[in-house]
Write a structure and sequence with these properties.
about 290 residues, alpha+beta, 4-stranded antiparallel beta sheet
């Protein structure tokens, strides 16, 4: 029996946002296996399948820059919302993003080029800052969208999407596809991009949730396939119902405009950053005693 440590409990809580005691029980039931424990919580209905809980927001700005056939989305973090409103910080974000575009989204090259500018801004403003991530897409047409913009082109959510094709109708739907991505947050572009292991886990969770209990084998197969199709419709961009016309998928909308999605990137400010919680360790320690 694996030891259920405070660190394991904190990691599972950050991953699922389930309660401390539920996390401990899940780990005990699954011999300390984080992934199995997360699935166990889902099977028990404690955590919803599509939950993205546990991702604590951090401060800073997300921005998107593009040219005719390439776009970059960039996240630069700071410690407080106050700094995100600072014009010097905003100027730094713009400068970093333009350098990222110039260097074709190469993170290391961009970081090397802007590190002195970041250090100088830290010295001026008096708050720590970091270039967290850069994503690049390229194609015949590039579209972008910023949600919750603090200033034009900078906000909390940044999306860039590239669509290949030469039909003028692509320009009519491109920005709408970018807005769809911001609203629906797909994880993959096509079904082929989905990890087969993730699909098998989804099947297992669905079956072990009890939804198929007592059903004939043929019915179970159809139910499982239906659940997988639903899973694709939730996490695969091409298979998602288009937000402005749910009767069609995003793939159908793009194909009707004579295009094909070449790539996309979505950044949510601070996603996945775990801020310090001073009394969390004490809470876990007390529970384990």
């Amino acid at each position: 029996m694996a030891e259920v440590t405070a660190n394991l409990i904190q990691e599972l809580r950050a991953k699922t946002s389930a309660g401390m005691m539920d996390c401990k029980k899940a780990l005990v039931e699954n011999n300390g296996d984080i992934e199995a424990a997360a699935d166990w919580l889902r099977q028990k209905g404690i955590v919803k399948a599509a939950s993205k809980a546990g991702r604590v927001a951090a401060s800073g700005l997300v921005t998107v820059v593009k040219n005719n056939n390439m776009g970059c989305v960039v996240e630069l973090n700071a410690e407080t919302d106050f700094v995100a409103k600072n014009e010097k910080f905003q100027a730094l974000v713009a400068s970093v993003a333009n350098k990222a575009l110039e260097l074709q989204g190469d993170f290391d090259a961009t970081m090397n080029a802007v590190k002195d500018d970041i250090a100088a801004t830290i010295s001026t403003i008096g708050e720590n800052m970091s270039l967290r991530r850069i994503a690049k897409v390229s194609g015949d047409h590039v579209f972008s969208y910023i949600h919750n913009a603090l200033v034009p082109g900078m906000g909390q959510i940044g999306v860039v999407v590239a669509i290949n094709g030469d039909d003028p109708k692509i320009d009519e739907i491109g920005n709408k596809i970018a807005m769809h991505i911001a609203a629906n947050k797909p994880e993959f572009m096509t079904i082929a991009d989905v990890d087969p292991v993730a699909v098998e886990r989804e099947k297992k969770v669905f079956i072990e949730s009890g939804a198929t209990a007592g059903k004939p084998e043929m019915v179970v197969e159809k139910m499982v396939q239906g659940r997988i199709n639903k899973y694709y419709g939730e996490c695969v961009l091409e298979e998602q119902p288009f937000v402005m016309d749910p009767s069609k998928t995003v793939k159908q909308i793009v194909e009707e405009a004579g295009g094909k999605i070449a790539g996309f990137a979505y950044f949510l400010l601070g996603e996945g950053i775990q801020k310090r919680e001073d009394n969390l360790a004490d809470e876990v320690a007390k529970m384990l005693n």
